[in-house]
């Protein structure tokens, strides 16, 4: 079912049209992260704390990696269930340095 804006073919107005980023922002963020991996500025298997200005505690005695964090979010989207990485605060919105 199309939205009223689509049905009416209302043009987008950059000053008035609201786009809710939702899950789209995850795709944009991950694409940017992968570009940094390609540039050698980010290592998917390094301790995630290397890139953060706050501390994510180890899980099972091992540091959490960006790859593990991404995989946890992917599993959550599929299953709708919580995961230890999210409960640890790994999803917090804070600064990331490269």
How would you explain this protein's 3D organization?
The structure is a single chain. 5% of the residues are buried. The protein starts with a helix and ends in an 11-residue tail after the last helix. The radius of gyration is 18 Å and the shape is elongated. The C terminus is likely disordered. It has a domain of 55 residues. The protein has 98 residues and is an all-alpha fold. The longest helix has 15 residues. The chain is built from four helices and no strands.
Which descriptors apply to this entry?
98 residues; single chain; 4 helices; mainly alpha
Give me a quick take on this structure.
By secondary structure, the protein is an all-alpha fold. It has helices at 4-8, 24-38, 66-79, 84-87.
Please compute the radius of gyration using only Cα atoms. Answer: 18 Å
- Portion of residues in beta strands equals under 5%
Oligomer: single chain
Sequence of secondary-structure elements? HHHH
Q: Biggest sheet: strands, sense, closure?
A: none
Please state the structural category. mainly alpha
Low-confidence spans: 78-98
Mean pLDDT: 76
How far apart the termini lie comes to: 43 Å
Compute the number of helices. Answer: 4
